[in-house]
Amino acid sequence: MTPYRRFLVSTTFPDNKRGVRGYRPADVDAFLERARIAYDAAPGSPEALSSADIRSTSFKLVKKGYSTGHVDAALERLEDAFALRERELALSASGQDAWLTRVRETAQVLLNRLARPEGERFRRAGRLTQGYSVADVDAFAAELRGYFQDGLPLSLDRVRTVTFSAERGGYAEEQVDLVLDEVTNVMLAVR
């Protein structure tokens, strides 16, 4: 049984506590059904989904919705299963050496960005626009450098759940988020 099949034996999630909004059940159920079909679809087919697609999925919050914590944990397992499948497909298509070369190149590009001076690692939001706190992002960038450069331990969960406080004129959120997505891709690839 594939990791994905084990994951989706049941798609029932507990509802959030009364008064706390959760993910709209119909949206979650529809997405999981789409993911079932996509997992068995040929790569490149219209039904195909990637691990990045799963990572960027969001659901509307409603009263009597599914527990966000339970659904988020399930989506992380689903993303892991799709990433494993993507790695297996890439290895069979191009071979291990070519695949490892691509992963190393991506990791080096990330490391080059993370090695920039503090306060200059990412584009800034406008002076009156909220961005991510430069100090928070730079502190996390140091953790990421330790992982890529020195092999220090860093969990994928830490990367997935990192939060930054807001700051006017801080780092542009979309650029930081794209880098974090690439870090996640690299970490999933070498798992």
Structure, described:
- It comes from Mycetocola tolaasinivorans.
- This is DivIVA domain-containing protein.
- Helix 4 (68-94) crosses helix 5, helix 5 packs antiparallel against helix 6 and helix 5 packs antiparallel against helix 8.
- Mean pLDDT is 88; it is low at 1-10.
- Strands 1-2 form a two-stranded antiparallel sheet. It has a two-stranded antiparallel sheet with strand order 3-4.
- By secondary structure, it is mostly helical.
- The protein has 8 helices and 4 strands, in the order H-E-H-H-E-H-H-E-H-H-E-H.
- The radius of gyration is 18 Å and the shape is flat.
- Helix content is 59%, strand content 5%.
Percent strand: 5-15%
N/C terminus separation:
20 Å
Instruction: Determine the structural class based on helices, strands and strand pairing.
Output: mainly alpha
Number of domains: 2
For the sheet with most strands, the description reads: 2 strands, antiparallel
Taken from the alpha-carbon principal axes, the silhouette is flat
> Percent range for helical residues?
55-70%
Radius of gyration: 18 Å
Poorly predicted ranges (pLDDT <50, ≥5 residues)?
Answer: 1-10
Order of helices and strands: HEHHEHHEHHEH
The overall pLDDT, averaged over residues, is 88
User: How are the strands ordered across the major sheet?
Assistant: 1-2
Tally the beta strands: 4
The helix count comes to 8
